[in-house]
């Protein structure tokens, strides 16, 4: 008899309003995509509503309840207002009908919601995301949801933790219901894979100032650090979160680290030049000992033609003395250049260390003491 009625349209009431009761919702976060700023969730939604057309007299039909196929009667169609992709399926092919026309059923929803998660403090991020769960209604006529409580299951999903889920209605309107989901990031993984390596590379660069300027060890070491950091960014670029209104501060952190590494390398190159030549302008390399000896020989060769043969021994001795004097003067000059370069290097190291300390204080303040606000309900604006 009930199947023959073909009740496949929503129940009508004099007030043009049908109340769909949702006694409880079981919520589960499936995944959070920080690259595309979306998150996927699963909801088990039990539904209960009244359809007078499906009631019967128990004195005629001696049954308090019967089971009917879902395909034979009308069921409410839930929709997610801010959903990018939503799949709804019946938990069972049958539903329960009571003699007073009350119908009980359950649907399972898998929905992907566009949520611009606030990643400003990444990897120490936390934010709310909304799932706008509603049914059809227009101009005060249609269906409205009457919610009960919400429970969660499997709160841990990857790097994200579902801390709280609560029901709200925007502006107190019955047609703008949403689940307010508090998501918090588990910072251990991103910190160990992204932040810690960059800190260690900067510390290695600070330690490279202990390498002497005169020897060709500091510059190759610093160049290796720069190349290692660039390779590190290329490998982990897919792990970095997306942008959005609140761009992650970790992107600025990586830019700062790369710039400071390059500047440190350039500084070592300039001071190595200064220690070698004593000037930053292009100049010929310092004369080697062989060139000095050759210059001495050329200088004395013109004089040897006019001197007597008996003075050759004195001339040779004078050559050696002049050569040693030039070598001593050159060594003294190089020592002065090297001492000056070392003093400049010490000053640069102090400035470098001061910049890093100030930067550490600033980045900690913006990571934990500064906030970026996002309106997660702007899809209703």
Automatic annotation (TrEMBL):
<dbReference type="InterPro" id="IPR036719">
    <property type="entry name" value="Neuro-gated_channel_TM_sf"/>
</dbReference>
<protein>
    <submittedName>
        <fullName>5-hydroxytryptamine receptor 3A-like</fullName>
    </submittedName>
</protein>
<feature type="transmembrane region" description="Helical">
    <location>
        <begin position="346"/>
        <end position="368"/>
    </location>
</feature>
<dbReference type="InterPro" id="IPR006201">
    <property type="entry name" value="Neur_channel"/>
</dbReference>
<dbReference type="GO" id="GO:0004888">
    <property type="term" value="F:transmembrane signaling receptor activity"/>
</dbReference>
<feature type="domain" description="Neurotransmitter-gated ion-channel ligand-binding">
    <location>
        <begin position="12"/>
        <end position="148"/>
    </location>
</feature>
<feature type="transmembrane region" description="Helical">
    <location>
        <begin position="191"/>
        <end position="213"/>
    </location>
</feature>
<dbReference type="Pfam" id="PF02931">
    <property type="entry name" value="Neur_chan_LBD"/>
</dbReference>
<feature type="transmembrane region" description="Helical">
    <location>
        <begin position="249"/>
        <end position="266"/>
    </location>
</feature>
<dbReference type="GO" id="GO:0005230">
    <property type="term" value="F:extracellular ligand-gated monoatomic ion channel activity"/>
</dbReference>
<dbReference type="InterPro" id="IPR036734">
    <property type="entry name" value="Neur_chan_lig-bd_sf"/>
</dbReference>
<keyword id="KW-0812">Transmembrane</keyword>
<dbReference type="GO" id="GO:0016020">
    <property type="term" value="C:membrane"/>
</dbReference>
<dbReference type="InterPro" id="IPR038050">
    <property type="entry name" value="Neuro_actylchol_rec"/>
</dbReference>
<keyword id="KW-0472">Membrane</keyword>
<keyword id="KW-1133">Transmembrane helix</keyword>
<dbReference type="InterPro" id="IPR006202">
    <property type="entry name" value="Neur_chan_lig-bd"/>
</dbReference>
């Amino acid at each position: 008899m009930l199947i023959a009625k073909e009740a496949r349209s929503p129940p009508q009431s004099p007030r043009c309003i049908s109340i769909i009761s949702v006694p409880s919702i079981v919520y589960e976060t499936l995944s959070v995509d920080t690259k595309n700023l979306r998150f996927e969730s699963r909801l088990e939604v039990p539904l209960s509503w009244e359809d007078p057309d499906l009631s019967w007299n128990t004195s005629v039909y001696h049954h308090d309840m019967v089971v009917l196929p879902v395909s034979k009667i009308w069921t409410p169609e839930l929709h997610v207002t801010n959903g990018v992709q939503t799949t709804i399926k019946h938990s069972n092919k049958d539903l329960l009908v009571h003699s007073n026309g009350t119908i009980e059923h359950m649907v399972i929803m898998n929905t992907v919601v566009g949520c611009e998660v606030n990643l400003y403090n990444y990897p120490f991020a936390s934010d709310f995301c909304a799932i706008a769960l509603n049914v059809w209604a227009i101009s005060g006529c249609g269906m409205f949801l009457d919610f009960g409580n919400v429970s969660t299951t499997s709160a841990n999903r990857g790097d994200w933790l579902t801390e709280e889920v609560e029901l709200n209605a925007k502006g107190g309107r019955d047609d703008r219901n949403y689940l307010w989901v508090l998501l918090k990031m588990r910072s251990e993984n991103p910190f160990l894979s992204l932040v810690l390596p960059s800190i260690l590379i900067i510390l290695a660069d600070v330690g490279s100032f202990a390498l002497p300027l005169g020897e060709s060890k500091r510059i190759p070491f610093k160049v290796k650090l720069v190349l290692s950091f660039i390779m590190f960014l290329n490998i982990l670029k897919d792990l970095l979160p997306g942008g959005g209104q609140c761009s992650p501060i970790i992107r600025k952190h990586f830019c700062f680290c790369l710039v400071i590494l390059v500047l440190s390398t350039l500084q070592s190159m300039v001071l190595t030049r200064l220690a070698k030549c004593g000037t930053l302008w292009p100049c010929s390399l310092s004369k080697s000992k062989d060139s000095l000896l050759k210059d001495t020989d050329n200088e004395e060769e013109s004089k040897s033609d006019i001197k007597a043969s008996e003075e050759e021994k004195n001339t040779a001795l004078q050559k050696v003395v002049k050569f040693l004097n030039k070598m001593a003067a050159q060594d003294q000059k190089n020592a002065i250049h090297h001492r000056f370069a070392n003093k400049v290097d010490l000053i640069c190291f102090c400035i470098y260390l001061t910049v890093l300390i100030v930067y550490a204080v600033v980045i900690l303040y913006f990571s934990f003491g500064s906030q970026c606000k996002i309106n997660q309900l702007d899809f209703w604006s």
